[in-house]
Amino acid sequence: MNTDELRRTLMASENKKEGISWEDVVALNRLNEALEKVSIETLLAKKEEQKTDLDKLVDKLKAGGKLDRAIRKAKQKKRKQHWRTAKRKRRQYYEAVASPRRKQKLAEQLTTAEGWWEHVTSSWKRKKQTVLLTEDEWHNVLWPALAGHVFIVQRYDPAKPISLDNIYVTRTATGEVLFDGKEHLLRMLGYVL
């Protein structure tokens, strides 16, 4: 029996002017034992766990506490370095990190025809030179003559754009001509065998 049923039973017995039965006494005894098992501390702890952060803050303020919200303090800006110190740190970073990283990328790049194309055209783009040479011409005409060599691409006439008939390619170590654009043009026109 729960407490409501016990209460109704007791009320009914009082109205009848009868005494309390043994069943009612046993039920009241069980209820008393159940109430003794429940501790006030656990009920308060459960009630405290169910509170939101705002409720906890309000209770703390009511008890006379301080409002100590977590406010981030403004970070101080780093003091600007002396120009020599900044220059030294940039140089050290370049020597320790950037230069080896760039050299590693270049070493991987120069193993393929596509890598050489990227390397050569990036310098032309940086110098804002007009390039009429296509990547297909690079792969089909130039690369078979250049594969396996370290070379320099030069122009016959620096005023004209970079094209297949305006360049010649020399080997870096010996200066030997690996590809001659004028000769290639004459062969294409049928003037040279």
Per DSSP E runs of 2 or more residues, the count of β-strands stands at 3
- Report the structural category: mainly alpha
Helix tally equals 8
Straight-line N-to-C gap = 116 Å
Q: Fraction of residues in helices? A: 55-70%
Strand content: 5-15%
Order of helices and strands: HHHHHHHEEEH
Mean pLDDT, to the nearest integer, reads: 85
> Shape, please?
elongated
* Radius of gyration over C-alpha positions, nearest whole angstrom: 46 Å
Biggest sheet details:
3 strands, antiparallel
Oligomer: single chain
> Would you identify the regions where 5 or more consecutive residues have pLDDT less than 50?
none
Strand order of the largest sheet: 1-2-3
Structural account:
Helix 1 (3-16) runs antiparallel to helix 2. The chain has a three-stranded antiparallel sheet with strand order 1-2-3. The chain is mainly alpha-helical and 193 residues long. The chain is built from eight helices and three strands.
Write the layout of secondary structure elements.
Layout: H1 3-16, H2 22-37, H3 40-49, H4 53-62, H5 83-109, H6 113-126, H7 135-146, E1 151-155, E2 167-171, E3 177-180, H8 181-189
Antiparallel strand pairs: 1-2, 2-3
Helix pairs in contact: 1-2
